From TrEMBL:
GO MF term set: acyl-CoA dehydrogenase activity; flavin adenine dinucleotide binding
A single GO BP: fatty acid beta-oxidation using acyl-CoA dehydrogenase
Domain (Acyl-CoA oxidase/dehydrogenase middle) ranges: 125-211
Residue intervals of the Acyl-CoA dehydrogenase/oxidase N-terminal domain: 6-121
GO cellular component, one term: cytoplasm
Domain of life of the native organism: Bacteria
Family: Belongs to the acyl-CoA dehydrogenase family.
InterPro entries tied to this protein: Acyl-CoA_dehydrogenase, Acyl-CoA_DH_CS, Acyl-CoA_Oxase/DH_mid-dom, Acyl-CoA_Oxase/DH_mid-dom_sf, AcylCo_DH-like_C, AcylCo_DH/oxidase_C, AcylCoA_DH/ox_N, AcylCoA_DH/ox_N_sf
Domain Acyl-CoA dehydrogenase/oxidase C-terminal intervals: 224-372
Record flagged with keyword Hydrolase: no
PROSITE patterns: ACYL_COA_DH_2
UniProtKB keywords: FAD, Flavoprotein, Oxidoreductase
Protein name: Medium-chain specific acyl-CoA dehydrogenase, mitochondrial
Length: 384
């Protein structure tokens, strides 16, 4: 068993870390100011310039296949890079990526949706959740009715990330007797969006489809096979979500350690108190556990092994870990932790989402338990 990175992998990690420290972290005060004055944290022009700069340094299309101009670094490096990106709260990610399910498109769909998304010319969103169907995604009611060579879509989607900015949506609808099907629907085909304010900085949107007519050739994948595509899309996030959270938790824990070493109470720095030391120790133990569970899930994806069980474990553990760590870090900072002068309260609000989207804690626990009870996953195995 080898836990080391190759020299090239280490170099990539170090270069990303240097880029984040030099180019992205300096934007943190500006992001906080913008958000607190009601503007997007990163101005779109600043984001575009940053991505262009990153692209020049070779950071573009991290997990995108080489035939589409990407770096194809694979799941483990993608997870490690996400950990590095998570060290800042600046809402930045490298460009040159597209939703994994767009690769299931026809050649024409790839030209119209996949490639422009990779190039950053078009923005996508993924819409399965409805007001009456969240965890119970099989219960969606948005319907698609055939009319000649077109499908007519009606229904409502909710909590759609990027739904207010997207140029097209990958929407899941029940297509008559065929069942759940994924349609690629351009905004100008007629769907409407409305932002939903949340406790986080970026709001998702609700989408309304009122008899939106979509040509047959806009079905992504096969008629009636949409649910499998939706699970494939969600599956990729189950190791990337905890990966990014690990970077955030490590950065915050370092802030807590630095603060504990200078903050005095009752004649001593608070780092001398066991109550504080235990919070620091427990946080590192949980971060390390999350790191290896996440990398294990990513490794399984990279090896082409069934990663669903490992990914559910990593996502559940990582989401809970991040929320525990940010709470302890806030506690160690006392009243200062609760102010808007520091970014901790921002992280606190943002990380709360991790326990809800792309499968809540409860749904991950349900999946893990069912896999064990039904024998799809076994205890006591190492390296298989
Ligand atoms: C900011 C944000 C962004 C999002 N982005 C997207 C997106 O881009 N696309 C998209 O399609 N969706 C998106 N979602 C939706 C998200 O995936 C759902 O909110 C999530 O799946 C939970 O569904 P729900 O909100 O309907 O809660 P519900 O399913 O109603 O759950 C309510 C509570 O009941 C629990 N529960 C439900 N069923 C069970 C069960 N069988 N056993 C035990 N407990 C159960 C849940 O865990 C939860 O605690 C987003 C949500 C948010 C908040």
């Amino acid at each position: 068993m080898d836990f080391s990175l190759t020299p090239e992998e280490r170099q990539i990690r170090d270069t990303v870390r240097a880029f984040i420290e030099k180019e992205v972290m300096p934007l943190e005060p500006e992001v906080l100011r913008n958000e607190r004055e009601g503007r997007p944290g990163l101005d779109p022009d600043v984001l575009r310039d940053l991505r262009a700069k990153a692209r020049k340094s070779g950071f573009w299309g991290i997990n995108t296949p080489e035939e589409y101009g990407g770096a194809a670094l694979g799941p483990i490096m993608s997870a490690i890079i996400a950990m590095e990106l998570g060290r800042t709260f600046v809402p930045f990610s490298f460009g040159g990526t597209a939703d994994n399910i767009l690769y299931a498109g026809t050649e024409e769909q790839k030209q119209r949706y996949l490639i422009p998304t990779i190039e950053g010319e078009r923005r996508s969103c993924f819409a399965i959740t409805e007001p009456g169907a969240g965890s119970d995604a099989r219960n969606i009611r948005t319907k698609a009715v055939r009319d000649g060579s077109e499908w007519v879509i009606s229904g409502e989607k909710t909590f759609i990330t990027g739904g207010n900015e997207a140029d097209f949506v990958m929407v899941f609808a029940v297509a008559e007797e065929h069942g759940v099907t994924c349609f690629l629907v351009d905004r100008d085909m007629g769907w409407k969006s409305e932002p939903i304010p949340t406790m986080g900085q970026w709001g998702p949107a609700s989408l309304v489809f009122e008899d939106v007519r979509v040509p047959e050739e806009n079905i992504l994948g096969e008629l009636g096979k949409g649910f499998e595509l939706a699970m494939q899309w969600i599956g990729q996030g189950r190791y990337m979500i905890p990966a990014r959270a690990i970077g955030s938790a490590e950065r915050m824990l370092q802030m807590a350690i630095d603060y504990a070493k200078i903050r005095k109470s009752m004649g001593q720095t608070i780092s001398n108190y066991q109550a504080i030391q235990w919070m620091i120790a427990d946080s590192q133990v949980e971060i390390e556990a999350a790191k290896w569970l996440t990398l294990y899930a990513a490794w399984r994806v990279g090896e082409g092994l069934d990663a669903r069980h490992a990914s559910s474990i990593a996502k559940l553990n990582g989401a809970v870990m991040a929320n525990q760590v940010v709470d302890r870090v806030l506690q160690i900072h006392g009243g200062m932790g609760y102010t808007k002068e520091l970014p901790i309260e921002r992280w606190y609000r943002e990380l709360r989402l991790l326990r809800i989207f792309e499968g809540t804690d409860e749904i991950q626990r349900r999946t893990i338990a069912r896999n064990l009870i039904k024998g799809h996953a076994k205890l006591g195995l190492i390296g298989e």
